[in-house]
């Protein structure tokens, strides 16, 4: 009986594990200037970024929607007080984040490292 229960639990974990896994964007990321940003789930396929250290600690840097390492949304440039259309992609331990204005004519990007 115990063996059957153990096998059933193991099967559930193996099949449910990928469905329960967090998106690659979820976690803490270090900007080139040393500031730590944390992305957490804040809705279905939506991830909110919060500054965890530095001058803007506790402030939102926007939200991204997407899955499988590719995201689109809004990026707040806190030192300018502006919000830009943004996109992000995660590959390994690198988060590439960019924001654009004027229909994508002017863009800024940076790479963050997973903490």
UniProtKB/TrEMBL annotation:
Keyword vocabulary terms for this entry: Signal
Cross-referenced Pfam families, in alphabetical order? DUF2147
Q: Does the keyword Nucleus apply?
A: no
- In this chain the DUF2147 domain maps to 67-114
Where does the signal peptide begin and end? 1-21
Q: What is this protein called?
A: DUF2147 domain-containing protein
